[in-house]
Description:
Elements lengths: L1 H22 L10 E5 L7 H17 L2 E3 L9 E12 L2 E11 L5 E12 L13 H22 L2
Parallel strand pairs: 1-2, 1-3
Antiparallel strand pairs: 3-4, 4-5
Amino acid sequence: xxxxxxxxxxxxALSAGLQAAQAQPPAGEATPLAKVRIGEVxxxxxxxxxxxxxxxAAALGRSRVAVAAGKDEPVDFxxxxxxxxxxxxxxxxxxxxxxxxxPTGRKMxxxxxxEGLPGPAPDRDPWAAVTQPVARAFAxxxxxxxxxxxxxxxx
Length: 155
């Protein structure tokens, strides 16, 4: 009986320690710069839009920006990306604008840019040129611009 009580006490202590460890962020994990919700990517066909959205969420996470998983989660900012792919004389141009607003809808910032892709558009479809490396470049540019803006404006 005494052995069972000691075993129970050890198990309770281990359980309490595990719960305390889970409640605290891992050592070295930084506080997010902000929490955002990314709207649907406006402009591309569905598959390209999903790829751009996924890559943007991943790039923001790597830039210390938390991305809301659910629609009801409170956030600091909404990101609304607009992307256009067009056939140019020298290849394909992918242009983007990402509007940043606060939870009330007030516009806070706008990021924009473009990626020039040399060569002809596959099957004359400019969206076919939006491959994973192109989506990653778009996402990295937006995420780094957003993170720099937040770092500069959170002081």
